[in-house]
Amino acid sequence: MPNLAAMLREAKNLRAEMAKRNPPGSILWTFKRDPAELMARAGMLPDPWQAALLRSPSRRMQICCSRQSGKSQVGAALALRAALLEAPALILIISASERQAKEMFGDKIMRLYNLLDRPVAAIRETTLTVTLANGSRIICLPADQKTIVGYSNVRLIIIDEGSRVKDEVYLLVRPMLAVSKGRMVCLSTPYGKRGWFFEEWHKEDNEFLRTKITADQCPRFTSDFLEQERKTLGDRLYRQEYEGSFEEVIDAVFDQQDILAACDNSQQVLFGGGQ
After folding, report:
1. Euclidean distance between the first and final Cα of the chain, in Å?
2. Residue 114 domain-assigned?
3. Is residue 239 assigned to a domain?
4. What is the rounded radius of gyration, in angstroms, for the C-alpha atoms of the chain?
5. Contact 189, 243 (CB under 8 A)
6. pLDDT digits (tens, 9 = 90+) for 56-105
7. Nearest by Cα to 250 from 189, 190, 192
């Protein structure tokens, strides 16, 4: 049976060590007290939904976002929060393509990290990874099964533009959180009524905390710009890109509801020439 006195001493020593690492008033203490400061201290005042996402303790979050709403930037802030405050942590960010993975890493994560004056030193950097002195690693990967296989004990998985990430990749990364009991955050603009992102959004027993962010919740859009976009894109594509609506695939011949109705086994089928 564990010695209670020894356990109390160990807990006290751990608290003292954590206080030594993040003393009151230090930048890491500030981020721990309010994770939204990760963006604010970098001169990126977070929108209310971004601040709420950074402060949320939820283990599963699915964010259906308007185009250009700031989803990748808040994803970068979430990655840095885990790397700085939950060390040693392995953070994986899955992007739809290699180009997007490089953009996420260089323009979002490393830019934010540099704007914050690198509060924990980096001991290794590549075009898609950074390893910090506290043992944390952030790795950005394209959504390719060959590059993702082999990771385990992951603290945080962020899937950026999840509606364009294949189902098999989504199913492949989920077990990586089993042992670590880590978090998963999925951010995307819709891409038709298809794929795991659409299906998870519409499940009645969904494990995700779901949030929709439309263009009118983003202060960087003007009403004139949005009206012009509606005229240019047409109603269906505008609803998808700016209102978070899961629309029929643009080049689809049949609507999703018609297909489902055609597969309804409860309807009797009558063939010509029947009695």
Report:
1. 80
2. yes
3. yes
4. 22
5. no
6. 999 999 999 999 999 999 999 999 999 999 999 999 999 999 999 999 99
7. 192
How far apart (Å, rounded) are the C-alpha atoms in residues 168 and 114?
34
Helix, strand, or coil (residue 143)? coil
Q: Residue 88: is the preceding peptide bond cis (ω within 30°)?
A: yes
Domain count, the chain: 1
Cβ neighbours around 5 below 10 Å, total: 8
Q: Does residue 153 fall inside a structural domain? A: yes
Q: Is residue 15 part of a domain?
A: no
Closest CA to 163 of 237, 239, 64: 64
- What is the domain range of residue 233? 23-261
135: three-class secondary structure by DSSP: coil
CATH number at residue 44: 3.40.50.300
**What single letter denotes the amino acid at residue 193?**
K
For the stretch 16-51, pLDDT in tens is 554 555 555 589 999 999 999 999 999 999 999 999
**Which two structure tokens, joined as six digits, stand for 43?**
């001169």
Q: Which helix (H) or strand (E) holds 94?
A: strand 90-95
From residue 67, alpha-carbon distances to 61, 63, 255 in Å are: 18, 12, 24
Q: Which sign, positive or negative, has the C-alpha torsion 248, 193, 54, 117? A: negative
57-93: b (≥16 Cβ within 10 Å) or e? eeeebbbbbbeebbbbbbbbbbbbbbbbbbbebbbbb
What is the residue whose two structure tokens read 């990126």?
44
Residue owning tokens 């998808």:
240
Is the full-model pTM beyond 0.85? no
